[in-house]
Specification:
With 657 residues, the protein is an alpha+beta fold. It is built from 23 helices and 22 strands. It has three domains: 232 residues, Histidine kinase-like ATPase, C-terminal domain (Heat Shock Protein 90, 2-Layer Sandwich); 174 residues, Ribosomal Protein S5, domain 2, CATH 3.30.230; 157 residues, Rossmann fold (3-Layer(aba) Sandwich). It is 38% helix and 19% strand. Strands 1, 2, 3, 4, 5, 6, 7, 8 and 9 form a nine-stranded mixed β-sheet that branches.
């Protein structure tokens, strides 16, 4: 039997398998890309980019280019082998088969790809089905071939085209790929009929995608251009996932150099490549990124389970041997290992073997991946801890400190955390609860101060709106342990009122209100309270944000009183525009609201609480790494990063002096 490397090199039409057409994709796009919102839209470019990354993993591409055009068109190019264009056994070009039939990619065959992002090869064809227009250019054997599609349907047979004509059709940014020995260029525009919100791609999100892939595939160059702004980004990381761990910890104090464990594992039937990197820091938060064949498995899976098991066993073995557990009654738990841990877990598997929980590929199901990661990490981490006693001691001390804090805080936490405790606790006295018992129909307003709380209680619809006033600024929870949090009266009241608990027994299904609305004054103090609450929810009740339950109310800044009408303005620009257009006679009484307490209950209802007239901003996490960086910078102990942030963004600040 030929070696795998030889088979990889021989990428031809014979490796293309045909299973079905594209009709199911347009009928049920969610089955293939998860959704038709912004997340689903960006899944399109992920599929195309991952096809190019596959070429690099196989050792055939060194560069990947991406261009976001001003007219919503996207171009992705790579200097890999190029999609085969010769006739398939069905009599049609292999390129046309790959672009118009589901499960037709070469990645469906192990001999064509070793490790792949686009499972089953639905990537390119699904993108084609969901695009109003697509063009694919291939260079093989010094010849250029082209085919265009409209809503997934080819407009002509695959044909050859001179290089100068191709050059005229492509942006100059990707022209270097035309001089490569072989290449693939894909250009598409997402169909507005499918992506009704918007078919424009976010430069920031695409930049994050390419940077992430650059960390995973070391020595692969990525080049990105935003035509609208002229902004360029280039990524190349020789250190691979070690560089990613350093990047994730850049705003924290590492306790030791990053530790790398990697190698190949086999059970005789399947080979799995394993790469992990970890580093503890001085924070109390865990940050683990897991990947399977360059896909970010945000829900983890078997590979992450194997990593946790290996880390726990290695550290327990070391702590026992080194005497750290002497006199300790209970040792440490898996939760103790999480405090301050930053890690990356990356497995590479044959594409025909990999199993995800769904087509959106957020959780890896292969049990073999668990065995592979555990075996590789356990053996190498044991060696590291043995050979680096100083670093091992730092890690063990960090974990044992977390364990002691957990045990010491148990009494303080029990009132809120233990299972069933909330049923026995009375709701906070400050809480003005609503009559509605269905969480999906209920809202909780977290209000700044008793004055605004009084107006909100009077102005609300008590049928479905509950009010919880806060007595001023709350605890900064960025670096606070759980026992300190539940001892803080205002936060304890909030936790009890919400009903879902906190910590290891937190259950989002028990949340008593499906809209948690932060309502604070439109001034500096109000913004600070909002930031403190956002920090609390992000660090300790992340599920509230992930499930879309957290909102920020936007009260008006101005009341504009004319002779016959009253209007409210939410920005200075809106105020000026209203005065010009709706109050032309000039007799205007302008009131600048400094706080919610200045509004009477009727005004507060009309402007900020009435579902028909209010404005709410939903809190979402689009980029977890960026969010973690921002919270650490703004709310953490380190002053220099915060000073740099203020200096950089000072011109954008809105000062209420």
């Amino acid at each position: 039997m030929p070696k795998t490397s030889q088979l990889l090199q021989n990428y031809t039409a014979a490796q293309i398998k045909v299973l079905e057409g594209l009709e199911p994709v347009r009928k049920r796009p969610g089955m293939f890309i998860g959704s038709t919102d912004s997340k689903g839209l960006h899944h399109l470019i992920t599929e195309i980019v991952d096809n190019s990354v596959d070429e690099a993993i196989g050792g055939f591409a060194q560069n990947i280019w991406g261009v976001l055009h001003t007219n919503s068109v996207v171009t992705v190019a790579d200097d890999g082998r190029g999609i085969p264009v010769e006739k398939h056994k069905s009599g049609v070009s292999a390129l046309e088969i790959a672009m118009t039939k589901l499960h037709a990619g070469g990645k469906f065959e192990e001999i064509a790809y070793q490790a792949s992002g686009g499972l089953h090869g639905v990537g390119a064809s699904a993108v084609n089905a969901l695009s109003s227009h697509m063009k694919v250019v291939v260079k093989r054997d010094k010849k250029f071939s082209i085919q265009e599609y409209v809503i997934g349907k080819p407009q002509y047979k695959v044909k050859q085209i001179p290089q100068d004509k191709i050059k005229a059709q492509l942006p100059s940014f990707v022209h270097p790929v035309l001089d490569a020995q072989s290449a693939t260029v894909t250009q598409f525009v997402a169909d507005k009929k499918i992506f009704k919100e918007s078919n424009r791609f976010s430069f920031r999100k695409v930049q994050h995608l390419l940077r992430e892939r650059a960390y995973l595939v070391r020595k692969l160059f990525f080049h990105l251009l935003d035509e609208e702004t002229g902004q360029e980004k280039h990524f190349f990381f020789e250190g691979g996932i070690l560089s990613l761990v350093v990047h994730l910890n850049k705003d924290k104090k590492p306790l030791h150099p990053p530790i790398y464990c990697g190698g190949e594992w086999s059970d005789g039937t399947i080979k799995i490549g394993v790469e992990t990197a970890l580093q503890y820091n001085n924070s109390f938060n865990e940050n683990i990124e897991s990947f399977a064949n360059v896909i970010n498995t945000t829900d983890g899976g078997a590979h992450l389970t194997g990593f946790r098991m290996a880390l726990s066993k290695s550290l327990k073995d070391y702590a026992t041997k080194a005497g750290f557990l002497k006199g300790e009654k209970n040792g440490f738990t898996g939760d103790d290992l999480k405090e301050g841990l930053t890690a990356v877990v990356f497995v590479k598997m044959p594409a025909n073997e990999i199993q995800f929980e769904s087509q959106t590929k957020t959780k890896l199901n292969n049990s073999e991946a668990q065995s592979a990661v555990y075996s590789v990490v356990k053996e190498q981490l044991d060696e590291y801890l043995e050979e680096h006693p100083a670093e091992a001691r730092h890690i063990a001390e960090k974990v044992m400190l977390a364990a002691r804090a957990r045990l010491a805080a148990r009494a303080a936490k029990d009132a809120v955390i233990r299972k069933g405790a909330l049923e026995g606790l009375t709701l906070p006295g400050k809480l003005a609860d609503c009559q509605e018992s269905d969480p999906a129909l209920s809202e909780l307003f977290i209000v700044e101060g008793d004055s605004a709380g009084g107006s909100a209680k009077q102005g609300r619809d008590r049928k479905f709106q509950a009010i919880l006033p806060l007595g001023g600024k709350i605890l900064n929870t960025e670096r606070a342990r759980l026992d300190k949090i539940v001892e803080f009266a205002e936060l304890k009241d909030l936790i009890v009122a919400m009903g879902m608990g906190i910590g290891e027994t937190m259950n989002a299904d028990k949340l008593r209100y499906h809209r948690i609305i932060i309502m604070t004054d439109a001034d500096v103090d109000g913004e600070h309270i909002t930031t403190l609450l956002l920090t609390f929810f992000y660090r300790h009740m992340n599920q509230v944000i992930e499930k879309g339950h957290l909102y920020i109310a936007l009260p008006p800044l101005y009341k504009i009183q004319g002779k016959k009408q009253v209007s409210y303005a939410y920005t200075d620009q809106e105020k000026d525009e209203l005065v010009k257009t709706q109050f032309k006679d000039g007799s205007v009484d302008l009131q600048r609201y400094k706080g919610l307490g200045e509004m009477n209950p009727t005004q507060l209802w009309e402007t900020t609480m009435n579902p028909k007239t209010r404005t709410l901003k939903q809190v979402a996490i689009e980029d977890a790494v960026r969010a973690d960086h921002v919270f650490t910078t703004l709310m953490g102990e380190e002053v220099p990063p915060r000073r740099r942030f203020i200096q950089t963004h000072a011109k954008l600040a809105t000062l209420d002096i």
